[in-house]
Structures are given as structure tokens and as C-alpha cells.
Amino acid sequence: MSDPASLNRTTFSLADTARGDDGELYHLPTLRRLHALGHLRPGSAAYVLLMQVLADAAPARARLIA
């Protein structure tokens, strides 16, 4: 029986990676899974990179001013 908190195997593609401010290359699907499991420490290079990627991927919202 597999542990639900474990990471699953996935294919690796350079399109699924991003370079952090620390110069390291990070696999985004792995970062997303680690974040979902609560294993990324806020403020860490991996956490900051993931938050930047998620913010860049979010659609821009129009602000309506009455």
C-alpha cells in the first residue's frame, strides 16, 4: 500500500523547471506537491520561487472603479 504523503514518479521535462534566485534548477511539479503536503518552509528559495511562478501564472484581474 502506498503512502498518500509520498511523492509519485513523474516524467522530467526542462519545460517543468525554473531557476531560483539561488541559481538552482527546481522541478515545479515536485515543488507543487511538496507545498500541498506542507513540506516547503515559507521564505525558503523553493517556496519563494513557487509563489512567483504561481503569481505569474494567475490571470490578471481587472479592477473596476465606480
UniProtKB/TrEMBL annotation:
The scientific name of the source species is Deinococcus gobiensis (strain DSM 21396 / JCM 16679 / CGMCC 1.7299 / I-0)
Supply the name of the protein: Uncharacterized protein
